[in-house]
Amino acid sequence: MTSTTNPLLDTSGLPRFDEIRVEHIEPALRTLIPALEVDLAALDATARPTWEDLIEPLERLQDRLRYTWGVVGHLMGVKNCDALRAVYERVQPDVVSFSIRVGQSETIYENARAMRNGDVWHGLDPGQQRIVETLVRDAELAGVGLRGAARDRFNAIQLELANLSTQFSNHVLDATKGFALALDARADIEGLPRSLLDLAAQSARGSGRPDATAEAGPWRITLDAPSVMPFLEHSTRRDLREKLYRAYVSRASTGETDNTPLIDRILALRHEMAALLGYASYSDMSLASKMAPDIATVEGLLEELRLASFDAAQHDLDDLRTFATEAGAVEGDDLRHWDIAYWAERLRERRFAYGEEELRPYFPMPHVLDGLFALAHRLFGVRIAAADGTAPVWHPDVRFFEVRDESGAKIAAFYLDPYSRPAEKRGGAWMDDCVGRTRLAPTTDGPVRLPVAHLVCNGTPPVDGRPSLMTFNEVETLFHEFGHGLQHMLTRVDHGLAAGINNIEWDAVELPSQFMENWLYHRDTLIGLTAHVDTGAPLPDALFQKIHAARTFRAGSAMLRQLYFASIDMALHRGPLAAGQGSPFDIQRRIAEKTTVLPPLPEDRFLCGFTHIFAGGYAAGYYSYKWAEVLSADAFGAFEEAGLDDERAMAETGRRYRETVLALGGSRSPMEVFEAFRGRQPKPDALLRHAGLTGGGAR
Questions:
Q1: Residue 402 bears catalytic tag
Q2: Helix (H, G, I), strand (E, B) or coil at 601
Q3: What pLDDT, on the 0 to 100 scale, is given for residue 356?
Q4: Measured between alpha carbons, how far is 454 from 437 in angstroms, rounded to an integer?
Q5: Could you give the CA distance from residue 121 to residue 132 in angstroms, rounded to a whole number?
Q6: Which of 376, 424, 504, 536 is least surrounded, with the fewest CB atoms within 10 Å of its CB?
């Protein structure tokens, strides 16, 4: 199906982002959904338990919807506006309803079961078999076995949850851009680095103060990460840090953007949906499609890591208290939440003789990209080159790159949207597929459609004609999302339902992303990313040694923070909020007693901004970050054992990693893929070693 009038209906190439307008969305979906319903009816009428008569038509149908709806969802993340929200709200129910009908098709389900149980099964390759098995499982989780009122209620819940998720995300975006700290006096900016002053002045100019300069102000601090985080780390004004911190942890908890009632409703609906399918809780339902076998296993891992990190985190806090007290800034237990980032940065400077801001000039984004691409070539034998202007983009800052193999053949491509745009772009960072690899949609590139990824970050934008000067954390985030992108782009699976990141259990999907972060602590790799913005000099070796030494700085605190989030997520989804349990915030506080060393403020409402579990894919699955980090650290251990400075060994290990973790996608189980690369099952030793955590108390 193609159209020359509505770009959202043209699937002949990459999305025509330069032509797509809000007014195209509703007509496109009103045309597409009925057409797909005809295709679904035809599939239901003609399906047989064979690959060609069931799976291939189903893949074509789902791919067609994913193409158009994927563009709309992508624009909601990067070009959000009131008009787009309004049309999204109108068409989303129809899209969700159609997806429900596909998932609950008894014809598809019964034919898939017949394939699994019949003679045709033995003629399928392992990837095809896994797709069929997943199709059966997902149909059961989609309610295919429900009848009558139970199915009607289940479907109504899915529609409501989709709407609530969108509302939740929009509220967080609105609350983030709805707050700003306006600074006019020199005393207000004491301690702030030049990079933040440049950004704050640019923000002020964008808000109606064209006269704003970094030197004279005024300055505007927002709740967007490139603004709020450096302010908390460097501002000497404790009163302003407190004001900003309180605003940040209470985002989306009051007024028109209050997510509190949405949280209650989402949790209740998820539990009801799980109960309809016969599960004791939403957590049990979630784990039915994940790598972890059960709740006890997840909680066992979280507890093992908690025991290894709690005492270290307590020691981190005691260190800060002592340091701040000796500096005369606080007395006794007066160290508060808005002091942590500030004094942690001062302690880092004291202990390791460098600060995060000292690194920025060495990380101009263009050079970081060159170093990242050089690493990809060294490890995986791929060449990445800019192809700006060859594909339409949704914003002038967006870059486009092509990926080629050693022969020069194009194998993939990706968009990079690197900078924060708080007025229209949601926070955080993510990778998503623009189009996936499949042999069912050949293009001018060949008989197989090549994968194209979206890599989206919220880094510090360029200021006053200078390139973006990245923080170390922003470099780490870029590496993380690029790791996701590599798994999408370097897949060798031609079945779209299992290519790239498709069909991979959610608690394994972070393996390649977290794996890439480890390379920032390898000397040659990190120095290869750097070139001082003024002199071109690489990062001095002495500074690298300090970065490497600081890798375990406050590692216990970082570990415990993630365990806090994961434990709250599991607790909230263990069952309905029964009488006496209190609110979700009461549960948060109870979890905090075991997983924080500085209890949250009474008014802390971080749950209202916890988009990962209330507006993303991590509900009863936030533990996935730690589960996959065990896998990723162990995978990196294979490179350490081979010798990180042995080019031949690195290439050999990298190619093996590419042919397993990156190439096999969802065509094998994650454990099978990991064992194919590592030769054994994963162990947590490397994760604890990298974090400098080898044990802990029994708190």
A1: no
A2: coil
A3: 87
A4: 14
A5: 9
A6: 536
Stretches in the chain below the pLDDT threshold 70: 1-4, 331-332, 577-580, 694-699
What is the spatial distance between Cα 18 and Cα 15, in angstroms, rounded to a whole number? 9
**118-133 pLDDT per residue, tens:** 999 999 999 999 999 9
Quote the pLDDT of residue 328.
84
Q: Cβ of 18: how many Cβ atoms within 10 Å?
A: 10
| CA dihedral for 364, 365, 366, 372, sign (positive or negative) | positive
What is the rounded distance in angstroms from the CA atom of residue 462 to the CA atom of residue 468?
Answer: 4
Distances (CA, A) of 134 to 236, 316, 503, 620, 669: 55, 44, 8, 19, 11
Distance, first Cα to last Cα, the chain: 61
Q: Cα–Cα distance between 595 and 616 in angstroms, integer?
A: 23
456 forms bridges with which residues in the sheet?
417, 430
Query: Hey, how many other C-beta atoms are within 10 angstroms of the C-beta on 111?
Result: 24
Partner residues linked to 183 by β-bridges: 219
Q: Structure tokens of 492?
A: 């060798």
Number of H helices, E strands in the chain: 26, 7
**How many CB atoms within 10 Å of residue 510?**
21
Find the radius of gyration of the CA atoms of the chain: 25
Name residue 589's amino acid. Answer: R
Asked whether the beta carbons of 255 and 268 are under 8 A apart, the reply is no
Q: Which residues pair with 415 in a beta bridge?
A: 400, 454
pLDDT tens for each residue of 474-533: 999 999 999 999 999 999 999 999 999 999 999 999 999 999 999 999 999 999 999 999
Percent of the chain with pLDDT over 90: 93
Catalytic residue among 481, 505, 510, 517: 481
Question: Dihedral, CA atoms, 65, 68, 73, 76, nearest 10 degrees?
Answer: -160
Residues 623 and 292 sit within 8 Å (Cβ to Cβ): yes
Whether residue 218 has a cis bond before it, omega within 30° of 0: yes
The number of CA neighbours under 13 Å toward the Cβ of 412 is 28
**Closest among 443, 372, 454, 444 to 414, alpha carbons compared:** 454
Helix axes 260-276, 584-595, angle to 10 degrees: 90
Q: What is the DSSP string of 159-173?
A: HHHHHHHHHHHHHHH
What single-letter DSSP state applies at residue 616? S
Q: What structural domains and CATH numbers belong to the chain?
A: 7-145 (1.20.1050), 179-251 (no CATH)
Reference 320, options 290, 304, 300, 340; nearest CA is 340
Cα separation, 678 vs 407, in Å, equals 28
Query: Edge-to-edge, what's the strand order for the sheet holding 383-386?
Result: 383-386, 399-404, 410-419, 452-459, 430-435
For residue 541, the tally of other CB atoms under 10 A from its CB is 10
Q: C-alpha distances in angstroms, 685 versus 393, 675, 680, 693?
A: 43, 16, 14, 9
**Residue 217, SS3?**
strand
Cβ atoms of 184 and 213 within 8 Å: the answer is no
Question: What count of other Cβ atoms lies within 10 Å of the Cβ of residue 255?
Answer: 10
Write down the pTM of the prediction.
Answer: 0.94
Q: Which residues contact 107 (CB under 8 A, 6 or more apart)?
A: 43, 44, 47
Q: CA 520, CA 514: separation in Å to the nearest integer?
A: 11
